[in-house]
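Bumping with the actual sequence this time:
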Amino acid sequence: MKRDWNLVRQILLQAESYSPGVYIESFTCEGFDEATIIEHIEIMIESKLLDGEIDKTQAGTSGFLVHKITWEGHNFLDNAKNDTIWKKVMAEAKEKGTSTSFVVLNGLLTKAAQKYAGLG
């Protein structure tokens, strides 16, 4: 599976829309199947963007329960929320032609957000 930053962003945006204390058991993300969504949620929990758990069976992953977005997840989402900034940064990353790590992407988003706000 290849990590998809657009899916990561969609999941965080949806999770943010839930009321506090509501556990999330499903996400609907246009263009992505359930297995891909679950796999992304698993790596987002591992990377501390989400707090939750993955239900695993011997046959593989069967579901998940997301408790909340973590502090780190909120920080990333704050930078990624603006569509103009997101599209600009994703185009810039694609133009460079390399895969983008979380640290690099978050750095680019932070820099673009600061510039957008007139701080940089």
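The tokens above came from a reply further down the thread. The chain is about 55% helix and 15% strand.
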